[in-house]
Amino acid sequence: MIYVIGSGIAGLSAAISLHKAGYKVTVISKKIIGGGSTYWAKGGIAVALDGNDSPEIHAKDTISVGDGMCDIKAVNYVTTEIRYAVETLEEWGFKFDEDLRLEGGHSRRRVLHKTDETGREIFNFMYKLALKEGINFTEDRLIALKVKDDEIKGFITEKRGEISNSDRIILATGGYGYLFKFTSNPETNTGDGLAIGFRAGALLSDMEFIQFHPTITKFGSEYFLLTETLRGEGAILINDKGERFAFKYDERGELAPRDILARAIYNEYLSGRTVFMDLTKIEDFDKKFPVLNNYLKKYNVRKNRVIVYPGAHFTIGGLRVNLKGETNIRWLYAIGEVSDTGLHGANRLASNSLAESLVFGINIQRYIDKWEGLNVDDGILNYVTLKDGEKLSINDIKELNWEYLGIVRNKEGLEKLVQIYESANTKEDNAILVSLLSAKAALLRNESRGAHYRADFPIKNKELEGKRIYFKVKKSD
């Protein structure tokens, strides 16, 4: 039996492709419907399909945005394989809209979408298909992995207890973006898979790189992501003085990469100015973005005055894997946001996350019978001891991370954060553990690169280009 832990696009595509290849699969998720980021993803899937585009150009854009930290093999693999993955999804019966959209950081129109709720549309389709195929789903929470001699032997869940009949375990549990005060992420994204994998001995990397989406708004009590494609279709950003300020920060204006635009908006707020998105320049807005249009009407928000601010959106770091999704623990795989393939580097190109998840999910059935093993490049390896300690509320963690691990960081704040988390319960609390590892990584990277910005080290350090920071648990004697 192969167990897939997680039910987003990565987990569902893996489960379906494995089932179609003849494997027995069970999907376990702490919240099956609407639990992961896929359900809330607005943009689409980046794939070079147009005549003036190619996987090589897509790769070039990915590497440019990744700011010196991309794994080139991972980039070439995903930008090439995504065509096959999309074709497979369409063969299963999914239908995309016909037009390709443009997003920040892309030099070509290459974002496949389904209305303005691509993630939800794909999830609904895949979930129905998986049920039709007879794949078993269980709503349960992963507690721990059972490992002996660096090989997976089973796992423990909250409801079912210990399960030892697992041939393979695929973690597809998502990231930890919910652990910030302002976020586009659902409440399930608290880093469970990363923390549990780490405690079991899995290697983590790139934990300092957390992407903040520049344009999140709020309708009532609900946070709502204003997709990148809005700006690709003509939306502009203005402050309360009526200034179109984005070009002050980057020549690409509203189509600059997310890290640049998030800091630009953050700086506007620090200067006492409120930021709005003006949607009035988008042609056929009602047809292109029907869901957002309904929200604007429901909450009586004018199209030229949609208030926006940046928030945590995507956690780039995760369980280190190779191009087969293999971790350093035999028969333990990780795919999607819980993993770190090196594709995104220091900053993710828009709509590459669904692409990565789909590629690794659909392709995993090719490799599931033969274990290759993980080889890692040279980097900075750190061992971390798990400790008992005080427990913190999730709201306290969100406040602390936003203040000290947010868009702009510095040594003083990061040291304070590390001190707080090192005296807390990393043995049991997943949110505290992944927050500690992120803070430690951010403190170690004495430079600004991609999504990681240090006010006390505002420029890049050439010696750190391509140098990854790794973490592994220090086993007690």
Low-confidence stretches: none
Instruction: Round the Cα radius of gyration to an integer and report it.
Output: 21 Å
Q: Give average pLDDT, whole number.
A: 95
Proportion of residues in helical segments: 25-40%
What portion of the residues fall into strands of 2 or more residues? 15-25%
Order of strands in the sheet with the most strands?
Answer: 5-2-1-9-18
Largest sheet: 5 strands, parallel
Question: How many beta-strand runs?
Answer: 21
Name a few traits of the molecule:
alpha/beta; five-stranded parallel sheet; 32% helix; L-aspartate oxidase; flavoprotein; EC 1.4.3.16; pyridine nucleotide biosynthesis
Describe this structure in words.
- It is an enzyme of class 1 (oxidoreductase).
- It comes from Saccharolobus caldissimus.
- Its cofactor is FAD.
- By secondary structure, the chain is an alpha/beta fold.
- Helix content is 32%, strand content 19%.
- The protein is built from 13 helices and 21 strands.
- It has helices at 9-20, 55-66, 72-91, 118-133, 192-199, 228-232, 258-270, 285-288, 290-298, 352-367, 394-404, 411-422, 430-444; strands at residues 2-5, 25-29, 45-46, 111-112, 136-139, 142-148, 151-157, 161-163, 168-171, 204-205, 210-219, 222-225, 236-239, 275-278, 306-307, 309-315, 318-320, 332-334, 339-340, 379-384, 468-473.
- It has a 5-stranded parallel β-sheet, covered by helices on one side. It has a 5-stranded mixed β-sheet with strand order 19-17-10-21-20, with helices on one face.
- Strand 7 (151-157) and strand 8 form a beta hairpin.
- Helix 3 crosses helix 10 (352-367), helix 5 packs across helix 13 and helix 12 (411-422) packs antiparallel against helix 13.
- It is globular, with a radius of gyration of 21 Å.
- The two termini are 33 Å apart.
- The mean pLDDT is 95.
